[in-house]
Amino acid sequence: MKKRRESKRASGAPSPNHWVNDIYDVLRSQKISVVSYVPDAGHASLIRLCQADKQMRSVVLTTEEEGVALAAGAYLGGKRAILLMQSSGVGNCINMLSLIKTCGFPFLALVTMRGEWGEFNPWQVPMGQGTPAALAAVGVIVRKADKAGEVLEMISSAASLAFGSYCGVAVLLSQQLIGTKTFSR
Amino acid sequence: MKSILRDRGDLLVVAGLGASAWDVAAAGDHPLDFPLWGAMGGAAMVGLGLALAQPSRKVLVITGDGEMLMGMGSLATVATQRARNLRIVILDNERYGETGQQLTHTASGTDLAAVALGCGFPHARALRQKSEIEQLRSDIHGLDDLIFAVVKVAVTDDPLVLPPRDGAFLKNRMRAALLGPKAAFE
Question: With a threshold of 0.90, does the pTM exceed it?
């Protein structure tokens, strides 16, 4: 595995997106063709890549739980899906995730974390801190990437676990990795 | 329900929890039915996922007013995707049927057909007469566009026919019927 150089990060700004390309490459190699999301700044580059990809269908959601049901329906029809969301959105998914556990649907989510690293918006903290326990409470396996260099193997192994072993897997991308949001212009 | 599903051919059916699922089972449980026993608010999105994955097949979501109200936002998501093979039919008895017949919002004026139009559905119809069902059935099979229909139904005490409850069985059964035996190895 080629070792990637850690991207140099300007203070307060998100790092250049080698790890985003890693994720996109995994989506392609794992033949994930349905990408649903409520947009988050941390997913903006990946969403753009998916929207530009003719092999993928990008589905914008009004609330994140829709992406759980969408993934189940896609799998019934023989297609693989991924749900991109922020940690705040995890809280909107909890009962719908019962669909995954009950029926044994493969399910893959990518969660950009808030409320844990230099967070200045207090409203992000409860669900940011609650995300791992909330997901685990309904039977979703939780993995976390803290560094850019971890992302490729994390998402690749998570996808293999989800689709190979018919389980729900959420990969959390730490706030430290994404870059803390600043509200200066 | 029997009228809607008459000569169903290779129609894929997702049924929302409660009376819709019982009615679909009563019409004759079928491998291409996916009756929900939970995931309230998710029926339309399960249907959308199926429709996007199988663009050459017609996908019918049959659900109740209470279930659709819980997933009202999904009507915007569905309309935005404009899956031309997807049909959403609401059996609207204005009640939460499984919990004591409490009135839903459609009993006091919430108009799900108007909601669908407002969300961007190309058209939406409300049916009040049995005679209108045949046109709906015909359109379910023949119309090349997204369909939304509200069927106003009376509160009746129909014989209870339960579909299978085992979600893994239902998932595997539908996949096998739709994708063939290789689906079990994917």
Answer: yes
